[in-house]
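Thread: Newbie trying to understand structure tokens

Hi all, I'm a second-year student working on a class project, and my supervisor (Dr. K.) asked me to get a predicted structure for one chain before our next meeting. I've only ever worked with sequences, so writing a 3D structure as a token string is new to me. If someone could post the tokens and maybe explain what I'm looking at, I'd be very grateful. Here's the chain:
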Amino acid sequence: MRRIAVRGIIIKDGKLFAQRLNTRDGGARDYWCTPGGGLEDGESLHDGLMREMIEETGVAPVIGKLLLIQQYKDEKREYLEFFFHIKNADDYINIDHNVTSHGAIEVAENGFIDTSKQKILPEFLQDFDFDELIARDEMTILNYL
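---
Reply by user tm_fold:
Sure, no problem. This is what the structure looks like when written as tokens:
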């Protein structure tokens, strides 16, 4: 079984917009991640990213180019994740989860973080020069199968 997900890469002043998700017991996870989530059946990558970003942040993303594709698997399934540049970074400075459909339920906190000082998953996001990644003509494919 394969799960396809889409994620937004939002950069402002060298920092990455990320979120810490809630756990099932009401706490917050000990790591950060980029906003996004799984596609619904028949949904396009762009439509899925638009839906997920609005559900979690209340902000409609201005979707730029595809930056990264990650493929990996665990004992349950295979995962395919598409990371897109989100161009309207200033719109993500002050997020109010109370006006979102999923943010207050799913997200403990969010903001622009220094990835060298915070634990972020996937781990490869800690090592990227985001400005260089966005300026590249080609995307990066990461394959862990």
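A couple of things are worth pointing out once you decode it. The chain has a mean pLDDT of 92. The chain has three helices and eight strands. Feel free to ask follow-ups in this thread.
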